[in-house]
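Holo prediction — magnesium ion.
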Amino acid sequence: MIKIAIYSRKGGTGKTTSTFNIAGILAKNFKKKVLVVDADSQANITTYLLQTDQELNGGSYSFLNDTPTIEDLFLYPEKINDTIRNASFSLTEKGAPRKRGIDIIPARPTSISPKVDLDKINDLLVSEAIPGGQLSKAFSMIRHTRNHMYDYDFCLMDFAPANNRLTMDLIAACDYVLVPTTIDPASINGVSGLIEMLDNIRTEYETRVSLLGIYPTICMKNTSYDASTLTDMKTVFKEKYIDAPIRYSTETKWSIDMGVPLAYTKRTAPVTQDYSTLVNEIIERTKV
Ligand SMILES: Nc1ncnc2c1ncn2[C@@H]1O[C@H](COP(=O)(O)OP(=O)(O)OP(=O)(O)O)[C@@H](O)[C@H]1O
Ligand SMILES: [Mg+2]
């Protein structure tokens, strides 16, 4: 299982939208088995991928109160097999929901008052009330069960826009970091901080996590500002630049509203092609 952190310190760079659609392309076009991990206390990707379960439960996510979620793994890593849920969705209004090869370790949405949310986990890590490295431990304990796969090809972890102890602990559990960046100077400047952070994580946790690449999101390539900034990014990021800019498209918002990744409903849309180019490059760069 190749574990990829989809991370940027800056908010609103398309991390969650990317995670949702990269998972869709990997599962639908490449027949890969995908495990998504929601590592953000906002629990956005949980609500996107478990929309069907929410509808079947009277419009509430309270069913997540009855099962362990990501937060619990920091205390009880061995519970990982009980946290994994299948994302299922139908492709037509009247069709029955079906599993699609995407599973998720959810976070508890704040709407159901999590007992311990990820922000609290960060405090517990800082005070050393809980040890670091629990998630790596948990990953090594994934087993086949009646409800879920175990031989995942890819694990995609959706991050909060934070740079704290929890971020470091989560990144340390991954093999690669993939960075979506919007087209603005702040995003470009933020990358040197990220490289330093990865150096610290490798030393502190004795891991080999590396930067998979940086790709632009929410772009308008036909505007002169975006076009010239994309050229600058290529020069600055060199081999770490992934030439797969994800264009601005409201179709991304529709797909999230429906809880169905673009690969299933908008196969030929230009923005889906952008994600597909990105996934091709991810597969190429993670080949061993
Ligand atoms: N390609 C795109 N075209 C148009 N809108 C997009 C695109 N990608 C993302 N968005 C929109 O941009 C906003 C931020 O996206 P998203 O939630 O994926 O970012 P994020 O990095 O996960 O944010 P956060 O840092 O809060 O977790 C959302 O409103 C989303 O619908
Ligand atoms: Mg997000």
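READOUT: The longest strand covers residues 98-105.
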